[in-house]
Amino acid sequence: MNIYDFKVKDAKHNEVDLSEYRGNVLLVVNTATGCGFTPQYEGLEALYQKHKDRGFEILDFPCNQFLGQAPGSNEEIASFCQLNYGTSFRTFSKIEVNGKNADPLFVHLKGQAPRDHEDGEAGAFKKVLQSISHTVLGDDIKWNFTKFLVDREGNVVDRFAPTWKPEDIEPAIEKLLWKEGSQ
């Protein structure tokens, strides 16, 4: 099973078969409009503009599970992102990423990449916190703007914590784009 086996709803409640993204490198992100990480939309859009012609897509899934930081309707959220950050990548319907009502797509993503990519520059204290967090929360997503990187075959290749800025993930994206024959 891979990401192409899932169907989701877009911001207008239309069903989207993720197989339509077959052959693209994907960055799947759970987002929020009222989060300290919300300015990452700017970096996400910059990545999208830079690489979309090479087969790169961003799938934006708003999530209100973390302190209610994604209030509003799907349409309001999409409009906020477009007006404030100029986003042009696709926004999907608001979902849950953890718990009994977690969207099946995110259950799959977490199962394929149960831990956040280790930050090579993290200090000892940060690494202890990451370890405790994983022990307590398991595979659960810890906060908004967790990012899953998916290759052209629909396989999850990495998971990045919210603290990873989009530009810090770019080398991993470029590696997949180059490795898989697109320039």
UniProtKB/TrEMBL annotation:
GO terms for biological process: cellular response to oxidative stress. Belongs to the glutathione peroxidase family. GO terms for molecular function: peroxidase activity. Gene3D superfamilies: Glutaredoxin (3.40.30.10). The active site is at residue 35. Keywords: Oxidoreductase, Peroxidase. Pfam families: GSHPx. This is Glutathione peroxidase. The lineage of its organism: Bacteria, Bacillati, Bacillota, Clostridia, Eubacteriales. SUPFAM superfamilies: Thioredoxin-like. It comes from Anaerotalea alkaliphila. The keyword Repeat does not apply. PANTHER family: GLUTATHIONE PEROXIDASE.
